[in-house]
Amino acid sequence: MASGWARDGAIQDQIDASVNDAVQFARSNLISGASAELCDECGEKIPQARRLALPGVRYCVACQAAIEGNDTSAKSFNRRGSKDSQLR
After folding, report:
1. Mean pLDDT, to the nearest integer, of 4-22?
2. 39-67: b or e for each residue (b if 16 or more CB lie within 10 Å)?
């Protein structure tokens, strides 16, 4: 059931678009190829288990966590169409 001027299914289309954008963002950040033996950030040795589990890994666990904690680009999408959400 649509509300206001929205057509039936518009909300689900918006949800699907948000999920598809997130999936495409995640896929674009996948790495492949040979894993590094030493972390590109700090130079510490990357454990063998991590290199086998994540092909193409470039960072140790600590540096990867720090990098992912600073990444806010995926969270900046504004799918809500109201003025209030655009003024924040």
Report:
1. 87
2. beeeeeebeeeebeebeebbbbeebbeee
pLDDT at 30: 78
* Phi-psi sector, 9: left (phi>0), alpha (psi -120 to 50), beta: left
Closest CA to 28 of 79, 73, 80: 73
Q: pTM above the 0.70 mark?
A: no
Among the listed residues 45, 49, 42, 34, the one whose alpha carbon sits nearest the alpha carbon of residue 65: 42
Average pLDDT of the segment spanning 8-28: 91
Which two tokens mark 60? 């140790």
Angstrom distance (rounded) from CA 44 to CA 50? 13
Tokens of 47: 């454990």
Q: What is the mean pLDDT of residues 48-61?
A: 91
CA distance 78 to 87: 11
Residue where the block lists tokens 């674009």 = 28
